[in-house]
Design goal:
The chain is mainly β and 135 residues long. The chain is built from one helix and seven strands. The chain has a single domain, classed as ntegrin, alpha v. Chain A, domain 3 (Immunoglobulin-like). 10% of the residues lie in helices and 55% in strands. Strands 1, 2, 3, 4, 5, 6 and 7 form a seven-stranded mixed β-sheet that branches. The protein is elongated and about 50 Å long. It starts with a helix and ends with a strand.
Length: 135
């Protein structure tokens, strides 16, 4: 009986870990570099994303996440920047500079995490770039 009760409680808690559209939204309204920009391995990449967001209640974080789309797991992460949010709507400009690693694709993501803790979220927008070899 106790095991069943704990299983039910665990399932309810885990179900609450995923933030979705009912909690808020985010949209990249402009991004630099442009979608068709030529990005090369070992070049300096200056990313600037302007996002419109809504957080329906509480507090959370929005991140600018840059990933190596050719890698998997922990190797996928190139760099990120995190910004705190409070309930409401607004526009935010996020910036990050980095040296482009050996890859053929880079992804730029703007996830919102509810409650300030990195849990699962489907509140995200993204842009992907093709990366060319070093000249």
């Amino acid at each position: 009986m106790i095991k069943i009760g704990l299983s039910v409680i665990s399932a309810v808690l885990l179900a609450g870990c995923t933030a979705g559209p009912e909690h808020g939204s985010v949209k990249i309204v402009s991004i630099k570099p442009a979608e068709n920009a030529v990005i090369r391995v070992d070049d300096r990449l200056d990313v600037e994303a302007v996002v419109e967001y809504t957080l329906k209640s509480g507090k959370g974080n929005i991140s600018l996440v840059i990933q190596n789309e050719d890698a998997a797991g922990i190797d996928r992460h190139i760099d990120s920047e995190r910004y705190e949010l409070s309930a409401g709507s607004g526009t935010l400009t996020m910036k990050k500079s980095l040296i482009v690693p050996q890859t053929t694709k880079i992804g730029v993501f703007t996830p919102i995490y509810i409650g300030g803790i990195y849990k699962k979220t489907s509140i995200v927008d993204h842009q992907r770039y093709r990366v060319e070899p070093k000249k």
